[in-house]
Amino acid sequence: MHELRLVREVFEDLLRRGETEGLQRITRVYLRMGEFTEIDPEVLRYFFAEKSRGTILEGAEIIIEHSPLRELRLLSFEGE
């Protein structure tokens, strides 16, 4: 299930980058997701909600920009 691996990689990258920047909390995550990734946006949001408990990502709003390409890309994130 390569889709789950892609979501996990983005999630882990966010955790590393947020902690490196000294953030206490990531509040918003901006992703670009292609229609050919075969990833359901609701499954992605569920994964983030479940895996983020107890981390700096807990409660972050996930904003998805759609793309005609086969991609899942972290565009940016906001935190405090």
TrEMBL record:
<dbReference type="GO" id="GO:0051604">
    <property type="term" value="P:protein maturation"/>
</dbReference>
<dbReference type="Pfam" id="PF01155">
    <property type="entry name" value="HypA"/>
</dbReference>
<protein>
    <submittedName>
        <fullName>Hydrogenase maturation nickel metallochaperone HypA</fullName>
    </submittedName>
</protein>
<keyword id="KW-0533">Nickel</keyword>
<keyword id="KW-0479">Metal-binding</keyword>
<dbReference type="GO" id="GO:0008270">
    <property type="term" value="F:zinc ion binding"/>
</dbReference>
<dbReference type="GO" id="GO:0016151">
    <property type="term" value="F:nickel cation binding"/>
</dbReference>
<dbReference type="InterPro" id="IPR000688">
    <property type="entry name" value="HypA/HybF"/>
</dbReference>
<keyword id="KW-0862">Zinc</keyword>
